[in-house]
Amino acid sequence: MLGKLDWSAIPFDQPIPLGSALIVFLAAVAVLIWVTVKGYWPYLWHEWITSVDHKRIGVMYIVLAALMLFRGFVDAVMMRTQQVLAIHGPGYLPPEHYDQVFSAHGTIMIFFAAMPFVIGLMNFVMPLQLGIRDVAFPTLNSVSFWLTATGALLVNISLVVGEFARTGWLPYAPLSETTYSPGVGVDYYLWSIQISGVGTLLTGVNLATTILKMRAPGMGYLHMPMFCWTSLASNLLIVAAFPILTATLAMLTLDRYLGFHFFTNEAGGNQMMFMNLIWAWGHPEVYILVLPAFGIYSEIFSTFSSKPLFGYRSMVAATLFICIVSFMVWLHHFFTMGAGADVNAAFGIATSVIAVGTGVKIYNWLFTMYGGRVRFDTPMLWALAFVTTFIIGGMTGVLLAVPPADFMLHNSLFLVAHFHNVIISGVLFAAFAGFTYWFPKAFGFRLHEGWGKAAFWFTLAGYVLVFVPLYIVGLLGMTRRLQHIDMDLWTPWLIVAAIGIAVMIVGAACQVAQLIVSIRHRDELRDETGDPWDGRTLEWSTSSPPPFFNYARLPYVENEEPYWTVKQRALDGQAPAKDESYEPVEMPRNSPTGFVAAFFATLIGFALIWHIWWLAIVGFLGAYATFVVFAWREHGDYEIPADEVERIDRDGRAAQLAWMRKRERVA
Q: Which CA distances in Å does 361 have to 322, 331, 336, 357, 387?
């Protein structure tokens, strides 16, 4: 009836996961009770859970990312403290639990923290920057989000029902085959990533189609903001790379469930093929994350330098160059495989060459600031920290691209420090910068600057204190994933890294305090203008928050900084164009399709993990019925009357006009 599931799946003998699960359960119950008592369920159902508005879905992606970022950060704290406490001793995490912790940490941070954060920002901002009302496939957008949430849920269920993979954040074969991993941990990994991967692939198709086919009138490709260009490149990479991940994990699933031999040690299996396939996805994945981050930095450097982005066309060329070459460097992850000097040299050269594209961007950002009127608000601080720290991570990456050096440093903590150096400064700092930058646009009030700057400085200091020592112990010979330490030479550096993680905890606490203080003082921090940063792109031409239809009339775009052009014309005394008549706006109806499909996907994933075949069949039938009902719906859109559109639009424009007149008097 329940397949392999029985009471032995609950870790009654392990107080840490059991206690953590109890805390999460009680917190979830408390939230559900609070929502019920306050009567918020109808609001949540109609405005959020079933919403197909790209802005709402973007916010939900970011909320999911924040929750998973917290979970992944807790795992990081456990790893750093375990290694300090396990010097000449066992520490507090047994080996089998420690293996699950570092595997879950990488999986959660990449798939369920970084990816949803980046996709959430793209979802929220990109249609506004393009001057359009929604993405190409709104309901598919909702399905994508809820499938991602399903994957995150399955990973967290493994905390208390069964176990998670002990193979690392990528389930290397043959370790992940049933011979060496007979439990359900790898199965939790496979189904959570497969389900969320489908959601991510649908997102890639959706957002790429939106950028290619749904821009505002007059907006040619070379009139798009840089964030839209980098979003386009990222989503094209998703469309090209994620099928590789899906196929690779499908082959591993066939090995585990049906006795196939794609990646086994016997019967013709080839485990090195798994390495090639997983990294043929894995390295483009790095650029799927970092390219939108580069777009965020481009917007911030331009806005807070009060200048157009330097070298716009060269930035576009560098973005597309990185997009293409990212598929030609994957073998540098395993130079030690034994492919030979010629193959290693080719991939080493390609890895060094791809750094040229990033170098072009670095110089363009520096020249954007040069001669500008630079303002050091919190988003700009994150951007400046990125430039200084990312250069170090990039240089260590070029070092690792040299095969002889990589032979010495492979699987050492030097490699771990390099990867975190690049991802934290390149992606996480961009996520924090973009969150702070566009928060007023989403909610109508700014985040508190004092707490924001405190969070920035503590996070930056802790980040340096954690990973500089890891570079050093890596050079001293310390390999990754050690559950206990017996080398006194490494001890001082591990203690410094543990102090660094404590400083990062303070930074995270400051970010939570920033959010709480900002909500409590939202009236003082209110943005009446829609343009709190003196922005240059179209999203700042709307009210904060924007109306659900984004634009009453689609804007006409003449250059890559359309809103800045409008503001400058107003300051120069040119009369704005005469108002045209308003027309009705057609918008997509809310749909529970995504939420219901995710419910059945959760049943399917859980059932396949535990071999509960009848439940898997029920899940498949339910998911199929959900999409049949959606496909046969009679009315997918509704019409907003012209007078309602006019009323909402004029209210927002009145506040903006008052601000422009005030700015003109100051000038």
A: 11, 25, 31, 7, 10
Q: According to the model, what pLDDT value does residue 634 have?
A: 76
Ordered DSSP codes for 58-94:
HHHHHHHHHHHHHHHHHHHHHHHHHHHHTBTS--SS-
Q: At which residue do the structure tokens 């049949």 appear?
A: 628
Q: Are 159 and 188 in contact (CB under 8 A)?
A: no
What phi, psi does 589 have (nearest 5°)?
-75, 150
**What's the pTM?**
0.95
Is 134 annotated in the active site? yes
| Catalytic residue check, 12 | no
| Beta carbons of 143 and 81 less than 8 angstroms apart | no
Query: 485: which DSSP letter?
Result: B
Establish whether 418 is a catalytic residue.
yes
Answer yes or no: 441 catalytic: no
Q: Are the CB atoms for 347 and 396 separated by under 8 Å?
A: no
> How many H helices and E strands in the chain?
21, 2
Catalytic (active site) residue 486: no
Between CA 494 and CA 498 the distance in angstroms is 6
Length, in residues, of the chain: 667
Active-site residue, selected from the candidate residues 139, 235, 298, 459: 298
Active site residue 314: yes
Q: How confident is the model at residue 491 (pLDDT cuts 50, 70, 90)?
A: very high
Residue 565 identity: T
* 261 belongs to the catalytic site: no
**Active site annotation includes 406:** no
Quick check: 167 and 233 in contact, CB under 8 A?
no
Catalytic residue chosen out of the listed positions 50, 144, 176, 248: 144
Q: What mean pLDDT comes out for the span 420-449? A: 97
